[in-house]
Amino acid sequence: MTACPIAVILRTSFWPLGTGESGDRLWWVTVLSSGDDERNWSQRYKANLDKLASGDLVQVVEVVRDLAGREATRGLSAGEKRMLAKARLILLQEG
């Protein structure tokens, strides 16, 4: 399991997922921000929907990271709130 400071876990609300290389890869996805996303909500929604549909756990983590960050800074549309809840559920089921 990847070790990480408790302050980072509390700040990002993520926990180590997986072990070995896959766990390290997921950890870096949660730490590295994708930056400000200036697309409108419908473009972000479609891109995030494609990531969730891919079934790739790394992309699901990216969706949670991006939507949680946006929720904290600017707020989410109702559709994005449902998508964030769905993505978090997928992570809970995988963990």
Q: Which sheet architecture does the biggest sheet show?
A: none
Molecular shape: globular
Order of helices and strands: HHHHH
Q: Helicity range of the residues?
A: over 70%
Summed up, the helix count is 5
What share of residues are in beta strands? under 5%
Computed Rg? 13 Å
Residue stretches low in confidence (pLDDT < 50, at least 5 long) are none
| DSSP, total strands | 0
Structural class, from secondary structure content?
Answer: mainly alpha
Question: How confident is the prediction overall: mean pLDDT?
Answer: 75
Taking the alpha carbons of the first and last residues, their distance comes to 12 Å
Give the key terms.
95 residues, mainly alpha, 71% helix, globular
Write the layout of secondary structure elements.
Elements: H1 6-12, H2 20-31, H3 41-54, H4 57-73, H5 78-94
Helix pairs in contact: 2-4, 3-4, 3-5, 4-5
Detailed description of the structure:
The chain has 95 residues and is an all-alpha fold. The protein has five helices and no strands. The longest helix is centred in the last third of the chain and has 17 residues, at 57-73. The model has no long low-confidence stretch (mean pLDDT 75). Helix 3 packs parallel to helix 5 (78-94).
Task: Please outline what is shown here.
With 95 residues, the chain is mostly helical. It is 71% helix and 0% strand.
